[in-house]
């Protein structure tokens, strides 16, 4: 039999997702890996214990279940190693703690996921790290912001809620000229639509809570590093004692098998809805990188292989006082869309976006920003629901 790894590396996306992290013959032929619940691992003798010369030593250091997921993610990301953490937010904070020290300066994109900003402005600042936010459009211009003590450049593309694209390769090259670590929150694209390490990123971050889970029932984060940064990430992970549970790992591995099929559906439906929204008079702008009218579209087209199911639009509202009442009327009228945080599940969700913490990329002036996660429902039903919302907003 040909080497399985070699065969998979050359295979199509669906094939790879069906088989990554899977080794049935090492588990009596069962198709899926076992869910190993573990804290204690026994050693056959004291010598083995002293030298820790066996594959598994303690539950926090990995089990066959967590290893299967890490191997699958490494295969998809092209990374040297992956750690699992209990949430997407922890997938951001753990590498920041791994690579930053008191006195360091960190550059964070202004369109970053909100709770990441909160971590930076509170705990990271308290630990003596200086944080500076930069414009997502900066590209190689980031070099002008790099100081002698800049240690980390954090990217997220598209940005949270407003979906600004970033020239990841240009930013990585500039950052590496100064010895900085480049991290990227790649949750939106998943490694199916964008592979950060191929564009110079050192550490790729995912809220596996979203598309890998796919069903709004699991919280998990993954952090994958290239060979140069893997030892430090792994060491920090072990030091902090933060790990993913075997049950959740199993469920994420299960979700991965169908992720590409789901993504294709999300991609298609979200683009249809975005195009429909763009043609409406009561919509000022649609913030979706896959639309040619969107500012970062050219970067998206050049670097990404697809778009997922979440984007925003700006409701057209004349006076600022009516922004919130109109948005509330719109959202309250929706019945298919749930009002809820997160995304990547099978169901459609809507939320009014708060951009008050932005330093550079301020909120649009034309109206409130409403974020939509387009689920796997039929597009006609999704559009009919949104139409009801627009009618209610018009009457508010
Ligand atoms: C871009 C992005 N990164 C990270 C996270 C955090 O994921 P979790 O909800 O698993 O903490 C989110 C959650 O919405 C997100 O949108």
From TrEMBL:
It catalyses: L,L-cystathionine + H2O = L-homocysteine + pyruvate + NH4(+). This is Cystathionine beta-lyase. Keywords: Lyase, Pyridoxal phosphate. CDD domains: CGS_like. GO terms for biological process: L-cysteine catabolic process to pyruvate; transsulfuration. Its cofactor is pyridoxal 5'-phosphate. It is an enzyme of class 4 (lyase). Belongs to the trans-sulfuration enzymes family. Its EC number is 4.4.1.8. It holds the Pfam family Cys_Met_Meta_PP. GO terms for molecular function: cysteine-S-conjugate beta-lyase activity; pyridoxal phosphate binding. The modification N6-(pyridoxal phosphate)lysine is found at residue 210. The lineage of its organism: Bacteria, Pseudomonadati, Pseudomonadota, Alphaproteobacteria, Hyphomicrobiales. NCBIfam families: cysta_beta_ly_B (TIGR01324), PRK05967.1 (NF004626). InterPro entries: Cys/Met-Metab_PyrdxlP-dep_enz, Cys_b_lyase_bac, PyrdxlP-dep_Trfase, PyrdxlP-dep_Trfase_major, PyrdxlP-dep_Trfase_small.
């Amino acid at each position: 039999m040909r080497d399985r790894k070699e065969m998979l590396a050359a295979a199509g996306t669906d094939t790879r997702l069906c088989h990554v992290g899977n080794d049935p013959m090492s588990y009596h032929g069962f198709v899926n890996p076992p869910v190993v619940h573990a804290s204690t691992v026994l050693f056959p003798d004291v010598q083995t214990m002293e030298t820790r010369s066996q594959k598994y030593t303690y539950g926090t250091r990995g089990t066959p279940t967590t290893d299967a997921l890490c191997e699958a993610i490494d295969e998809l990301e092209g990374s040297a190693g992956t750690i699992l953490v209990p949430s997407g937010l922890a997938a951001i904070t753990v590498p920041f703690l791994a690579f930053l020290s008191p006195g360091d300066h960190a550059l964070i994109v202004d369109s970053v996921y909100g709770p990441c900003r909160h971590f930076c402005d509170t705990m990271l600042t308290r630990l003596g790290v200086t944080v500076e936010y930069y414009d997502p459009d900066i590209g190689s211009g980031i070099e002008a912001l790099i100081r002698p003590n800049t240690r980390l450049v954090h990217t997220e593309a598209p940005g949270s809620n407003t979906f600004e694209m970033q020239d990841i390769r240009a930013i990585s090259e500039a950052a590496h000229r100064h010895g900085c670590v480049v991290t990227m929150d790649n949750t939106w694209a998943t490694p199916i639509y964008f592979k950060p390490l191929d564009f110079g990123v050192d550490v790729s971050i995912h809220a596996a809570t979203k598309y890998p889970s796919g069903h709004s029932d699991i919280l998990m984060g993954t952090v994958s590093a290239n060979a140069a940064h893997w030892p430090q990430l792994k060491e920090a992970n072990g030091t902090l004692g933060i790990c993913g549970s075997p049950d959740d790992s199993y469920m994420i591995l299960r979700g991965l098998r169908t992720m590409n099929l789901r993504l294709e559906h999300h991609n298609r439906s979200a683009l249809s809805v975005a195009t429909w929204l763009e043609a409406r008079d009561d919509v000022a702008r649609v913030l979706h990188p896959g639309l040619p009218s969107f500012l970062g579209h050219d970067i998206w087209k050049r670097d990404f292989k697809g778009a997922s199911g979440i984007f925003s639009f700006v409701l057209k509202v004349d006076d600022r006082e009516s922004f919130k009442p109109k948005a509330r009327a719109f959202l309250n009228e929706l019945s298919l869309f749930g009002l809820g945080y997160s995304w990547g599940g099978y169901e459609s969700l809507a939320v009014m976006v708060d951009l008050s913490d932005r330093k550079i990329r301020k909120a649009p002036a034309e109206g409130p920003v409403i974020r939509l996660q387009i689920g796997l429902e039929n597009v006609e039903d999704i559009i009919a629901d949104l139409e009801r919302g627009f009618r209610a907003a018009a009457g508010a």
